[in-house]
Amino acid sequence: MAKKTQQDYCDVVPWKGYTTMQNHHLRNKSLSLKAVGLLSKMISLPPDWDFSLRGLATLNTDGIDGIRKAMKELEDQGYVVRHQCRDENGKMTHSRYTVHQIPQTGNPTSANPVSELPSSENPTTAKPTTGSPTPGMPTQINTNQVITQEINNSVNNNQSINLDGMDRMDLRAQYREIIRDNLEIDILSQDKRYDLDRVNEMVEIMLDAVCSTRPTICINGEDMPQQVVKSRFLKLNSSHIEYVLHAMNECPSNIRNIRAYMLTTLYNASLTMDNYYSALVNHDLYGQK
């Protein structure tokens, strides 16, 4: 009788917050690494992400000009297709973009205008704003335009991701990762000067506002549009967090509602940080004899 041999077993730890995408753009030698990275970044973002050149620029160090150049490259290659929309009177209104994981053949820029009214098949949309369009690749992509992300049908059914059916917990997890990356939490956590618990509390406060389904959020006693609060929070970086922490430590009065105070301070951080530090410098230079 043959003796049974012991077998080794390997348990694979499941990963959360991953993105399934085609390999086409990753293996396309005619694309620059910047364009490859930008397309991968756009595919990985939540379905309701406000796609704008400024918004995408906050996720890397390339700046708006670098993002604009990469977007133009993706459009030339057919990964991004632009359609000119017109209203019922035939007047050009805005552009609609479709992001493809497989490039479209032919001229990427469609000459056929589409209706101004968005499709009812769940595209990622945002309310259009007024203003003159910028020549070439505009700064705003999803404020004046619509981006539809195409998930290729050739992805294995067992690994496919239905972005339209993504539950709110998954969406919250993705935004948490984006906010933590923007704020460089991993780096801040290594600095013993900062209270990590308070930093994480700020992240959760920002996350609540970003993922809120309410039309407005109370900031310093006033109801502000949720989309405005969301946009401002997604543009904050580690320097803003350091400023808020410093301001809280220097605050002479007792803070009764810490959550409301932090929410207001975070919202105003991008506007008040420079003036705050300038006042401190002036005090150090001229406030003491």
Structure explained in plain terms:
By secondary structure, the chain is of the alpha/beta class. It folds into two domains: 33-161, no CATH class; 168-280, no CATH class. The chain is built from nine helices and six strands; from the N terminus they run αααββββαααββααα. Strand 1 (80-86) and strand 2 form a beta hairpin. It starts with 32 loop residues before the first helix and ends with a helix.
Tally of separate domains = 2
What is the alpha-carbon Rg in Å? 23 Å
| Total count of strands | 6
Largest beta-sheet details:
4 strands, mixed
Instruction: Report the structural category.
Output: alpha/beta
- Strand and helix order: HHHEEEEHHHEEHHH
The stretches of 5 or more residues where confidence is low (pLDDT under 50) are 107-136, 138-166
User: Approximately what portion of the residues adopt beta-strand conformation?
Assistant: 5-15%
What's the tally of helices? 9
What oligomeric state do these chains adopt?
single chain
Major sheet strand order: 3-1-2-4
Kindly report how far apart the N and C termini lie.
Answer: 97 Å
Topology:
Layout lengths: L32 H12 L8 H5 L5 H15 L2 E7 L5 E8 L10 E6 L30 E4 L18 H16 L1 H4 L7 H15 L5 E4 L2 E4 H8 L4 H13 L7 H29 L3
Parallel strand pairs: 1-3, 2-4
Antiparallel strand pairs: 1-2, 5-6
What key phrases describe this protein's structure?
289 residues, globular, two-stranded antiparallel ribbon, alpha/beta
